[in-house]
């Protein structure tokens, strides 16, 4: 059957594609009117999408992706990771003839138009999305690309301009200048890797253990930014370096900063009986790149966390059948907690990349005191955002270089 005939029949059977769109994005229901914006995914801060008819067929326009327009077929391709022809077969069977077994003859340019199938995660590279395009990061460099990133990636809120690789100079992991012109997030991580000094405003040399702590954080961030899941099977655990301390350390801030690059589902770690909650992962899909268990309490640090990392998760939603995401389809797991995992149970050993955050900051000396403002607020400049974007790319390259050389950088391990 010709693709044009199939498209006509499919759109006629699905109310001009509306059933396909609302089947994947329930928030789009009722948004077929002027000015009706909706959120394309759960957790999106502000609604940025609306519907528009093109040649009578409903399309999604997402202003968060620079006015990116997606047809119902394109959405189906993206959500199921299928090509154009396989998607037509799927939709034709679902909405018209379940027994149809024919072939698709493409005679139009629709196949070329539907470029909405995201790339598959690559073992040695990662494509990140910025407001001015897509950039492919490898261990050896960064280059602009026209290929869509994988579906777990979201657009970081700045245009990206590449700066020199931060970690080329070995001294950058040895000396911390609190007033340097490097990324504010990088400087915060350096401070969170150090014991407090009497003069917090002075340039300070890092001890060997402090350098290892900083390098472990860079490695862990790069790991979280990399969508590919091999047999490494690790989660990331941000904790207080002094388990008996309740000081603010910046660990939750860093975890949330990483979530600006990947579709993330946060879970409040203080829920009583958290793992017994039936709909714990109700907002997780195959588009989710990371789950953050934030502010985890000891009672919830059970063996279930290890299972989520090594085996995958089961997603249940109200009025929907449960879905099992195995290890390769499940999101990566990050935890923020006061205590390290080994203080909870020996069963956690060997699963977590642990990153201790020191008491550099306290209730009277906050990051806003150090930087003279709140990080990533409305006074954050384009240059600040770009430096942080470059820092993320540097962490990703650092991790990919370690991976290429078979190295795992931990708080106990050595530096490159």
What does this structure look like?
By secondary structure, the protein is of the alpha/beta class. It folds into 2 domains: 3-113, DNA Primase, Chain A (Alpha-Beta Complex), CATH 3.90.580; 166-404, Rossmann fold (3-Layer(aba) Sandwich). It has 11 helices and 16 strands. Helix 2 packs parallel to helix 3 (72-80) and helix 3 (72-80) crosses helix 4 (84-95).
Range of helix content: 25-40%
Number of domains: 2
Strand order of the largest sheet: 11-12-15-10-16
How many strands in all? 16
CATH architecture tag of the largest domain: 3-Layer(aba) Sandwich
Give the C-level CATH assignment of the largest domain.
Alpha Beta
> What portion of residues belong to β-strands?
15-25%
Low-confidence spans: none
Instruction: Name the assembly state.
Output: single chain
Shape: globular
- Count of helical segments? 11
Q: What about the largest sheet? A: 5 strands, parallel
Q: Any idea of the CATH topology of the largest domain?
A: Rossmann fold
Distance between the termini: 58 Å
Radius of gyration: 23 Å
CATH superfamily of the largest domain: P-loop containing nucleotide triphosphate hydrolases
Order of helices and strands: HHEEEHHHEEEEEHEHEHEEHEEEEHH
């Amino acid at each position: 059957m010709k693709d044009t005939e199939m498209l006509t029949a499919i759109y006629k059977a699905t109310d001009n594609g509306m059933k396909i769109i609302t089947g994947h994005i329930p928030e789009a229901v009722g948004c077929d009117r002027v000015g009706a914006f909706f959120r394309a995914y759960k957790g999106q801060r502000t609604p940025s999408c609306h519907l528009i008819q093109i040649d009578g067929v409903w399309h999604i326009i997402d202003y968060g992706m620079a006015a990116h327009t997606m047809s119902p077929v394109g959405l189906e391709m993206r959500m199921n990771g299928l090509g154009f022809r396989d998607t037509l077969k799927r939709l034709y069977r679902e909405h018209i003839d379940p027994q149809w077994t024919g072939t698709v003859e493409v005679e139009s340019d629709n196949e070329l138009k539907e470029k909405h199938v995201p790339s598959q995660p690559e073992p040695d590279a990662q494509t990140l999305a910025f407001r001015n395009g897509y950039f492919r990061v490898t261990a050896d460099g960064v280059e602009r690309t026209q290929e869509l990133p994988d579906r777990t990636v979201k657009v970081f809120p700045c245009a990206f301009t590449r700066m020199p690789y931060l970690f080329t100079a070995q001294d950058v992991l040895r000396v911390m200048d609190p007033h340097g012109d490097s990324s504010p997030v990088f400087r915060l991580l350096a401070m969170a890797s150090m014991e407090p000094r009497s003069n917090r405003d002075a340039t300070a040399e890092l001890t060997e253990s402090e350098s290892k702590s900083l390098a472990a954080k860079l490695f862990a961030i790069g790991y979280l930014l990399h969508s590919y899941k091999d047999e490494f099977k690790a989660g990331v655990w941000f904790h207080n370096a002094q388990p008996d301390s309740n000081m603010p350390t910046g660990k939750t801030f860093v975890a949330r900063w990483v979530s600006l690059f990947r579709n993330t589902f946060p879970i409040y770690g203080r829920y009583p009986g958290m793992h017994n909650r039936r709909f714990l992962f109700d907002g997780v899909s195959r588009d989710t790149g990371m789950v953050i268990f934030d502010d985890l309490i000891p009672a919830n640090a059970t063996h279930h966390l290890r299972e989520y990392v090594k085996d995958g998760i089961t997603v249940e939603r109200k009025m929907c059948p449960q879905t099992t995401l195995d290890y390769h389809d499940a999101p990566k797991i990050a935890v923020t907690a006061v205590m390290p995992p080994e203080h909870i149970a020996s069963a956690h050993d060997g699963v977590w990349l642990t990153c201790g955050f020191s008491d550099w900051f306290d209730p009277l000396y906050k990051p806003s005191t150090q930087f003279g403002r709140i990080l990533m607020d409305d006074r954050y400049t384009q240059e600040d955002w770009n430096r942080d974007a470059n820092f993320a790319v540097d962490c990703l390259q650092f991790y990919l270089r370690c991976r290429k050389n078979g190295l795992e950088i931990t708080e106990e391990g050595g530096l490159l």
